[in-house]
């Protein structure tokens, strides 16, 4: 806009105010990595295992009440409104133009934005403001460590915690929680699931195997991916299957210029059965594939839909949707028993 200087944008300030954050001095939007580093951003040491609180999920994470989340959000937005500089980054989960979820990160720290921007897909600068259901991430790195006690979540020391609200499409990262990439991705995946589903995408706890021009959906436990790690687009679990093709939910360092792959030519479901009941390789009908996907059998244990993280979509609904996709696109499916002898999925 004419007359605006770096850090000042009436449109952005109004948009942030709508999210409860009043800009005290400047708000910097979509800075490059080098620009963030000039503002003091550094590469943060990775963390893992921070507490994850999700409202509206179907299990897998500790709950947080509506009142607790509302109180926490007020404290976080008040804190962000009290700092001199705000850093904003716009991105997306999933790379299909029709089946993605726009994300806006609002933070008091260029380091948090530098970290979070590395996992989100790039999106046009105005895409978030024009989206009907964007996710908002509030990263309050310098907020008081006592904020957890104030809302009844308990003290988390100087590490922080992750809190998500599906109803509000909002994620709060307190303290150093932004450095727990795995926990942050699990929370974002839970939040984006219903939006992707409503837009015709199918969020799945799968990985992509790519060999030449062939792409396969791969459902497996973390231990089962070792034999084909070199063929994986990403070791991270989480893809979205849409009419446009298939893509990882999150950007990774392994990806080059390809961000959306063709419709899978096959689906591989890896199970682990040491009893010898399940053959080494079996070709499945769409109905059988949906059954094994829903069961997620792994040597006596069941992980429905292979989803270990919090989910807002029932596993049975995912199985029905997968069944429909397998029939519609005539995708062959194979069940591979990785527990029967030494074998390589490649």
UniProtKB/TrEMBL annotation:
Keyword Cell wall biogenesis/degradation found: no
Gene3D superfamilies: 3.90.228.20, Phosphoenolpyruvate Carboxykinase, domain 1
Reaction(s) catalysed (UniProt annotation): oxaloacetate + ATP = phosphoenolpyruvate + ADP + CO2
GO biological process: gluconeogenesis
Gene Ontology terms, MF aspect: ATP binding; kinase activity; phosphoenolpyruvate carboxykinase (ATP) activity
EC number(s) given by UniProt: 4.1.1.49
Keywords in alphabetical order: ATP-binding, Kinase, Lyase, Nucleotide-binding, Pyruvate, Transferase
Cross-referenced InterPro entries: PEP_carboxykinase_ATP (IPR001272), PEP_carboxykinase_C (IPR013035), PEP_carboxykinase_N (IPR008210)
UniProt pathway annotation: Carbohydrate biosynthesis; gluconeogenesis
GO cellular component, one term: cytosol
UniProt similarity note: Belongs to the phosphoenolpyruvate carboxykinase (ATP) family.
Name of the featured protein: phosphoenolpyruvate carboxykinase (ATP)
Organism whose genome encodes this protein: Corchorus capsularis
Lineage: Eukaryota, Viridiplantae, Streptophyta, Embryophyta, Tracheophyta
